[in-house]
Specification:
Elements (H helix, E strand, L loop, with lengths): L11 H11 L2 H8 L10 H10 L1 H15 L6 H17 L9 E5 L5 E5 L3
Antiparallel strand pairs: 1-2
Length: about 120
C-alpha cells in the first residue's frame, strides 16, 4: 500500500534527528519559537515535550516538510491540513464546569459560601 503522505512511516525521533543535523538546536528554537530547543536540549527531552504538546509537534512537522519534502506534490496539502487541525483545536475550547457554592450555616444564622473543589 502506498500513501501520498510524505510523513508516512517517519517517526518523530527521525524527524527530530534529521532537522537537528540540518539546523542546529538554537536555529530550530529561533525559527519555531520553541524553548525546549534553546534550554539544554537533548533528543529525549525534546521528544517528550513534542509528544505532549500538539502545537509544537505540528510546527516541527511543518519545518520538516518545508525542509526535506518541498518537492513532494502532497506537501502543501498536508501542511494546510495540519494548520487546519490546529486551528480547529484552538477554536473549540473545552467548556469549564461551573462549580455551585454550597452553603455552610453557622449557629448565629450567618451563611458562608464554600466552593467544593473535587
Amino acid at each position: 500500500m502506498q500513501t501520498n503522505d510524505p510523513l508516512y512511516g517517519i517517526k518523530l525521533a527521525q524527524i527530530l534527528t534529521d532537522l537537528q543535523t540540518k539546523h542546529s538546536w538554537k536555529e530550530m528554537g529561533d525559527k519555531l519559537g520553541i524553548k525546549c530547543f534553546l534550554n539544554n536540549p537533548t533528543q529525549k527531552s525534546c521528544l517528550k515535550f513534542l509528544r505532549q504538546t500538539p502545537w509544537a509537534r505540528s510546527r516541527v512537522e511543518i519545518l520538516y516538510l518545508k525542509t526535506f519534502c518541498s518537492k513532494h506534490p502532497e506537501t502543501t496539502k498536508l501542511i494546510r491540513s495540519i494548520l487546519a487541525t490546529q486551528d480547529k483545536k484552538q477554536q473549540s475550547p473545552v467548556p469549564k464546569e461551573v462549580k455551585k457554592p454550597s452553603v455552610i450555616k453557622s449557629n448565629d444564622g450567618f451563611e458562608w459560601a464554600k466552593i467544593n473543589n473535587k
